[in-house]
Amino acid sequence: MASVPARRSRNLTQNVVAALSERIRHGEFHVGEKLPTESALMESFGVSRTVIREAISRLQAAGLVETRHGIGTFLLEPRNEQQLRIRTENILTMLDVLAILELRISLETEAAGLAALRRTDAQLQQLRVILDEFAEHVRKKTGNAVVSDIAFHLMVATATGNRYFHDILKQLGKAIIPRTRVDSAALAENDRTGYLGRVHVEHEDIYNAIVRKDPDAARAAMRTHLTNSRERLRRAQEAAAQDA
């Protein structure tokens, strides 16, 4: 029976925390402003001092308020959420790009499998448009294939239905395309059109697996594509080292 009052106290505390958090979000209190006293909050919510103190303690843990002993409790400036931050400005060398490719192999292989299972018809159509645009850029040698290349990988990530795949790739931006970070001629072995043609074929393999809703084939095609990119980069790195 002793657990019943304790559970009720926890529920009361949760209610007070939720109510105060809502009032803070709606701007009832301003940054730096002192919150009502414990006595005022007790009267407002009809609960004990213990409940109010526990609620304030939870708000402190959440970084919403701070208590200055003998003075009161004050609203703090909202702190930014901790976010994954990959500093693309530090991706400078071939070794850096190789490290990014290792990350992408793990991330995008699974993304392709999930995309095959979850993609919508509309997303499939967008992938088709992006692939056709890539092929057109390669044919006309416009130099804009990078935009379509990035768009393809971002759309596959979007088709997973899990926004975190897309968020991470979008944060990487152009860093996901090795030829934007290193000597593209070396990567292409001095045959840019042929190089981009191979990339396009690899993209088509990924797309076709997603069309068929075949997650295993989609994973395999994405892994092959990114592993090939890593191998091309590795060969370019070795060639550069020999020249040096």
Automatic annotation (TrEMBL):
<dbReference type="InterPro" id="IPR036390">
    <property type="entry name" value="WH_DNA-bd_sf"/>
</dbReference>
<dbReference type="InterPro" id="IPR008920">
    <property type="entry name" value="TF_FadR/GntR_C"/>
</dbReference>
<dbReference type="InterPro" id="IPR000524">
    <property type="entry name" value="Tscrpt_reg_HTH_GntR"/>
</dbReference>
<dbReference type="GO" id="GO:0003700">
    <property type="term" value="F:DNA-binding transcription factor activity"/>
</dbReference>
<dbReference type="Pfam" id="PF07729">
    <property type="entry name" value="FCD"/>
</dbReference>
<feature type="domain" description="HTH gntR-type">
    <location>
        <begin position="10"/>
        <end position="78"/>
    </location>
</feature>
<dbReference type="InterPro" id="IPR011711">
    <property type="entry name" value="GntR_C"/>
</dbReference>
<dbReference type="InterPro" id="IPR036388">
    <property type="entry name" value="WH-like_DNA-bd_sf"/>
</dbReference>
<keyword id="KW-0238">DNA-binding</keyword>
<protein>
    <submittedName>
        <fullName>DNA-binding FadR family transcriptional regulator</fullName>
    </submittedName>
</protein>
<dbReference type="GO" id="GO:0003677">
    <property type="term" value="F:DNA binding"/>
</dbReference>
<keyword id="KW-0805">Transcription regulation</keyword>
<dbReference type="Pfam" id="PF00392">
    <property type="entry name" value="GntR"/>
</dbReference>
<keyword id="KW-0804">Transcription</keyword>
